[in-house]
């Protein structure tokens, strides 16, 4: 039986902590559950992909329970970056380690003066017990071990110091332990849990799928001309402000590529193990702070790098394992913006197994190294979806066959029936008795007479020489395809790999004869076509450029670029990284909406309290200046890219129920057919794909709901389709004015002629309520050019609205325009008549409501001292008790003793001060 306990008050503050410090109004998957478990003091193991928001899991609980959180992290530079970014969120963070020059940190930390305290594992194990006992008195909310896979000898980054962290368990008895890692196999997971002596931990394993990353692989032709081309292409990305890391397998490559950048006049950073510590630190610092946009490095660079806005990670040479590839490429696009991971390899990369095994003593570990390299090699030569292969390697079995965002899914490749060649190769491997790698059977097929072949008498095989027509690399490529499709099996023993025919391959051989083979369609790879010079690299780079700003006008693009520069300037002046001020996603949102007030700025996702209080005025000035210069209006509505609508749906909050609702897929489909495919309501209702037609009225309701949810909507076309003319609208307005309310539709309908339907009334109300400006409507009708009837005059709409407001002149100094603006404001907050029920209540939604409010306002002077006045404290106190939050209408209704203007102003102020925040149309207390 499940007993649900009431949430502790601390739990309720979790969402407000998220908005206040991080600027987000929603958690990403898994975060909230983990945070709640930690607050409940349960041990947790968090396995989540880089970029999926792992660190938030340990950053929020200390702020919720108001006790220090200890974070063990492997690298000083990583800790420094994290401390820098947390400080910009107004969080008290510091680190303890050899590089800490401020000697007061230790004693402050001991007294519990930091929200989050980072430590190296060495430090955590060597601070005196008195430190822990003092800090325990102040309170410790958690001990988090970041990059926890370093604890396991099975992990690819084993660090012996991590092994000693278990000692802390005896000291920190009542403190939840949290292990976090981006890559962990089952063995590693088990190791983390047992090494940290976790007690019944809550284990979360998120998806490894980083949907915003594009994966691509290219065969590389080592040489200066290739590097020059690479440098040219990356330079273009640099021009648009994107950061790039180029990972090389050798220091020599790092130096060569770095030199090419310098010669091309591009400032790049360099990072490898032979540089001195100071130079490396400087390189790291400049890159993180966007002073350098390109980093050429060995994999020594960037373990756990905390920079979220890297747009490209390029591997120049095949990495030594798929785990490390996944981790290194995972540093790309951590802010969720589309980013690109390219891997360039040469065949000689695959022969480095011996090299990687150099220091490895045990046979078991050598086998592990070889198998990792083999997996990376398979990834390179794959002809099927790369993402699927990656995900399956990390244990996610149910991914789609084609992701649509990797080179193999995006670029159609030539295919042909290679059943005869496959038969020859498999038969030859079969004859060689599976004791060899791929090279031997290929040499046999190609008719080689080297000593090894003669000794084994393979020259006597009937297959000897039958494959002369193709070069060895052609056959290798075929071999790799047969491996990835399961016809051949490659196994590793010590540092040797052997190839054999799998049972699937045996079946193929059994159903074949030398004259007949069942068809086997395979891909003609670059190796098969002999394309090593990457003639089309440039083309692909172009088509996959990440700098596209979807939905931006030219002026907005300029605005965006200038705002990025302003952020860089600001970051320089305060000595921090631009991303620590605010993320690239947030800059994009600001560029699209251009808020004019602090309240509007505060409402943007990713804007936290610290940013508003510290830099709010500066940002608003810059936004105003740039907008004026570019002739852009302020306070625009954010345009939502279609792609995100389809995946996330659209969530807004209906004030009627105070519950969030989403467009169902049926409604969204109907809207798509109408808006994108141009179908009529009649056509949508009678689609062949439907098992039975649906009512046209239902389709119209769906479309109205989509419009209300903010999807693009052609009101002119819709009005025409349902026969709503301006005459009808005038009549409806007259009827509403007579009835004096839109609480019920029936009385309005009763005032109207028979031929004016409920549909007409609802559409009129929806149009007004959806907050579309009249200009939009008008320009829509201008576009069609023939809707004279519907070419509303921008001035007559507000007027006719005002006519329904008996006390239109009741307030001093309020012009028709500002009243209309208030109407608009009000309309933003009201719901739509979405229910098909004719008696649908429109309680908050209408002129009646508006009228009533104006009346209330005018009445306040003479009557009713019981009416509630809104003050900062009364609003906050009242809202504290509203679990579901409140819409503006609800607030106005409750505080009916204050004028609408003053309430709106008050609410704006509270929002600026982060005492309340808005999510959709609903306000909640922080
Ligand atoms: Zn794919």
UniProtKB/TrEMBL annotation:
<dbReference type="GO" id="GO:0005634">
    <property type="term" value="C:nucleus"/>
</dbReference>
<dbReference type="Pfam" id="PF00270">
    <property type="entry name" value="DEAD"/>
</dbReference>
<dbReference type="InterPro" id="IPR036390">
    <property type="entry name" value="WH_DNA-bd_sf"/>
</dbReference>
<dbReference type="GO" id="GO:0009378">
    <property type="term" value="F:four-way junction helicase activity"/>
</dbReference>
<dbReference type="Pfam" id="PF14493">
    <property type="entry name" value="HTH_40"/>
</dbReference>
<keyword id="KW-0067">ATP-binding</keyword>
<protein>
    <recommendedName>
        <fullName>ATP-dependent DNA helicase</fullName>
        <ecNumber>5.6.2.4</ecNumber>
    </recommendedName>
</protein>
<dbReference type="InterPro" id="IPR014001">
    <property type="entry name" value="Helicase_ATP-bd"/>
</dbReference>
<dbReference type="Pfam" id="PF00271">
    <property type="entry name" value="Helicase_C"/>
</dbReference>
<dbReference type="GO" id="GO:0006260">
    <property type="term" value="P:DNA replication"/>
</dbReference>
<keyword id="KW-0238">DNA-binding</keyword>
<feature type="domain" description="Helicase C-terminal">
    <location>
        <begin position="226"/>
        <end position="389"/>
    </location>
</feature>
<dbReference type="GO" id="GO:0003677">
    <property type="term" value="F:DNA binding"/>
</dbReference>
<dbReference type="InterPro" id="IPR027417">
    <property type="entry name" value="P-loop_NTPase"/>
</dbReference>
<dbReference type="GO" id="GO:0005737">
    <property type="term" value="C:cytoplasm"/>
</dbReference>
<dbReference type="Pfam" id="PF16124">
    <property type="entry name" value="RecQ_Zn_bind"/>
</dbReference>
<dbReference type="InterPro" id="IPR001650">
    <property type="entry name" value="Helicase_C-like"/>
</dbReference>
<feature type="compositionally biased region" description="Basic and acidic residues">
    <location>
        <begin position="849"/>
        <end position="868"/>
    </location>
</feature>
<dbReference type="InterPro" id="IPR011545">
    <property type="entry name" value="DEAD/DEAH_box_helicase_dom"/>
</dbReference>
<feature type="compositionally biased region" description="Polar residues">
    <location>
        <begin position="834"/>
        <end position="846"/>
    </location>
</feature>
<feature type="region of interest" description="Disordered">
    <location>
        <begin position="834"/>
        <end position="868"/>
    </location>
</feature>
<dbReference type="InterPro" id="IPR010997">
    <property type="entry name" value="HRDC-like_sf"/>
</dbReference>
<dbReference type="InterPro" id="IPR002121">
    <property type="entry name" value="HRDC_dom"/>
</dbReference>
<dbReference type="InterPro" id="IPR036388">
    <property type="entry name" value="WH-like_DNA-bd_sf"/>
</dbReference>
<dbReference type="Pfam" id="PF00570">
    <property type="entry name" value="HRDC"/>
</dbReference>
<dbReference type="GO" id="GO:0005524">
    <property type="term" value="F:ATP binding"/>
</dbReference>
<dbReference type="InterPro" id="IPR004589">
    <property type="entry name" value="DNA_helicase_ATP-dep_RecQ"/>
</dbReference>
<dbReference type="Pfam" id="PF09382">
    <property type="entry name" value="RQC"/>
</dbReference>
<keyword id="KW-0547">Nucleotide-binding</keyword>
<feature type="domain" description="HRDC">
    <location>
        <begin position="553"/>
        <end position="633"/>
    </location>
</feature>
<dbReference type="GO" id="GO:0016887">
    <property type="term" value="F:ATP hydrolysis activity"/>
</dbReference>
<dbReference type="InterPro" id="IPR018982">
    <property type="entry name" value="RQC_domain"/>
</dbReference>
<keyword id="KW-0413">Isomerase</keyword>
<dbReference type="GO" id="GO:0005694">
    <property type="term" value="C:chromosome"/>
</dbReference>
<keyword id="KW-0378">Hydrolase</keyword>
<keyword id="KW-0347">Helicase</keyword>
<dbReference type="InterPro" id="IPR044876">
    <property type="entry name" value="HRDC_dom_sf"/>
</dbReference>
<dbReference type="GO" id="GO:0043138">
    <property type="term" value="F:3'-5' DNA helicase activity"/>
</dbReference>
<dbReference type="InterPro" id="IPR032284">
    <property type="entry name" value="RecQ_Zn-bd"/>
</dbReference>
<dbReference type="GO" id="GO:0000724">
    <property type="term" value="P:double-strand break repair via homologous recombination"/>
</dbReference>
<comment type="similarity">
    <text>Belongs to the helicase family. RecQ subfamily.</text>
</comment>
<feature type="domain" description="Helicase ATP-binding">
    <location>
        <begin position="35"/>
        <end position="202"/>
    </location>
</feature>
């Amino acid at each position: 039986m499940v007993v649900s306990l009431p949430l502790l008050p601390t739990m309720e503050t979790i969402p407000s902590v998220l908005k206040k410090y991080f600027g987000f109004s929603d958690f990403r998957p898994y975060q909230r559950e983990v945070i709640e478990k930690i607050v409940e003091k349960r041990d947790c193991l968090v396995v989540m992909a880089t970029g999926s928001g792992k660190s938030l899991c340990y950053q929020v609980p200390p702020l919720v329970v108001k006790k220090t959180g200890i974070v063990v992290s492997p690298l000083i530079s990583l800790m420094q970056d994290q401390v820098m970014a947390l400080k910009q969120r107004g969080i008290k963070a510091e680190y303890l380690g050899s590089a800490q020059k401020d000697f007061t940190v230790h004693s402050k930390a001991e007294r519990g003066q930091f929200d989050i305290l980072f430590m190296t594992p060495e430090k955590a194990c060597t601070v005196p017990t008195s430190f822990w006992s003092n800090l325990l008195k102040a309170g410790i909310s958690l001990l988090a071990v970041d990059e926890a896979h370093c604890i396991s000898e099975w992990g690819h980054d084993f660090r012996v110091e991590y092994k000693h962290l278990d000692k802390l368990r005896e000291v920190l008895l009542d403190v939840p332990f949290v292990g976090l890692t981006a890559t962990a196999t089952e063995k590693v997971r088990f190791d983390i849990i047992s090494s940290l002596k976790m007690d019944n931990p809550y284990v979360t394993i998120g998806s490894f799928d980083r949907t915003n990353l594009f994966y691509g692989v290219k065969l590389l032709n080592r040489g200066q001309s290739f590097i020059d081309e690479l440098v040219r292409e990356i330079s273009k990305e640099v021009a648009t402000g994107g950061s790039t890391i180029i990972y090389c397998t050798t220091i020599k490559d790092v130096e060569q590529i770095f030199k090419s950048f310098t010669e091309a006049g591009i400032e790049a950073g360099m990072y490898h193990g032979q540089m001195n510590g100071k130079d490396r630190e400087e390189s790291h610092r400049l890159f993180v702070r966007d002073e350098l946009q390109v980093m050429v490095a060995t994999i020594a660079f960037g373990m756990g790098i905390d920079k979220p806005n890297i747009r490209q990670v390029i591997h120049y040479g095949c990495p030594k394992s798929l785990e490390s590839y996944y981790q290194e490429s995972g540093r790309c696009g951590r802010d969720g913006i589309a980013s690109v991971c390219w891997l360039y390899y040469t065949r000689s990369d695959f022969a480095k197994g011996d090299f990687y095994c150099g220091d490895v003593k045990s046979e078991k570990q050598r086998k592990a190294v070889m198998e990792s390299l083999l997996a990376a090699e398979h990834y390179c030569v794959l002809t099927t979806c790369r993402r699927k292969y990656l995900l399956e390697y990390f244990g996610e079995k149910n991914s789609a066959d084609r992701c649509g965002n990797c080179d193999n899914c995006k670029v159609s490749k030539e295919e042909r029936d290679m059943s005869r060649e496959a038969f020859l190769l498999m038969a030859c491997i079969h004859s060689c008795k599976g004791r060899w790698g791929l090279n031997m059977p290929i040499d046999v097929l190609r008719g080689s007479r080297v000593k090894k072949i003669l000794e084994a008498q393979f020259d006597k095989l009937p297959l000897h020489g039958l494959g002369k027509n193709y070069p060895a690399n052609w056959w290798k490529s075929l071999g790799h395809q047969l491996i990835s499709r399961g016809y051949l099996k490659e196994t590793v023993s010590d540092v040797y790999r052997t190839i054999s025919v799998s049972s699937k391959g045996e079946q193929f051989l059994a159903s074949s004869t030398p004259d007949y083979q069942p068809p086997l369609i395979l891909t003609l790879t670059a190796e098969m076509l002999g394309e090593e010079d990457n003639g089309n690299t440039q083309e692909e780079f172009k088509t996959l450029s990440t700098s596209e700003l979807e939905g931006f006008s030219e002026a907005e693009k300029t605005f965006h670029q200038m705002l990025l520069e302003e952020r860089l300037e600001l970051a320089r002046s305060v000595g921090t990284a631009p991303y620590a001020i605010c993320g690239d996603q947030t800059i994009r949102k600001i560029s699209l909406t251009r808020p004019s007030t602090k309240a509007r700025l505060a409402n943007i996702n990713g804007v936290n309290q610290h940013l508003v209080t510290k830099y709010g005025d500066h940002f608003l000035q810059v936004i105003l200046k740039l907008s004026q210069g570019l002739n852009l209006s302020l306070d625009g509505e954010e345009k939502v890219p279609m792609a995100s609508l389809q995946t996330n749906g659209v969530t807004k909050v209906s004030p009627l129920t105070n519950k969030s609702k989403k467009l169902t897929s049926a409604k969204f489909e109907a809207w798509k057919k109408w808006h994108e495919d141009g179908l009529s309501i009649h056509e949508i209702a009678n689609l062949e794909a439907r098992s039975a037609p649906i009512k046209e009225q239902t389709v119209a309701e769906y479309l109205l709901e989509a419009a209300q949810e903010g999807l693009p909507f052609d009101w002119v076309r819709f009005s025409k389709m349902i026969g709503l003319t301006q005459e009808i609208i005038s009549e409806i307005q007259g009827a509403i004015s007579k009835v004096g309310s839109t609480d019920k539709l029936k009385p309005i309908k009763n005032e109207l002629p028979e031929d004016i339907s409920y549909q007409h009334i609802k559409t009129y109300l929806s149009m007004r309520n959806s907050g579309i400006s009249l200009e939009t409507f008008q320009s829509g009708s201008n576009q069609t050019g023939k809707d004279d009837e519907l070419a509303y005059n921008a001035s007559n709409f507000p007027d006719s609205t005002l006519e329904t407001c008996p006390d239109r002149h009741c307030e001093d100094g309020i012009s028709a325009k500002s009243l209309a603006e208030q109407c608009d404001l009000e309309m933003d907050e009201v719901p739509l008549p979405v229910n098909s029920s004719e008696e649908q209540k429109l309680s908050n939604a209408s002129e009646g409501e508006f009228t009533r409010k104006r009346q209330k306002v005018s009445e306040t002077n003479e009557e009713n001292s019981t009416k509630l006045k809104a003050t900062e404290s009364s609003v906050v106190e009242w809202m504290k008790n509203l679990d579901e939050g409140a819409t503006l209408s609800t607030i106005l209704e409750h505080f009916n003793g204050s004028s609408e203007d003053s309430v709106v102003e008050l609410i704006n102020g509270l929002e600026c001060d982060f005492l309340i925040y808005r999510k959709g149309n609903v306000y909640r207390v922080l």
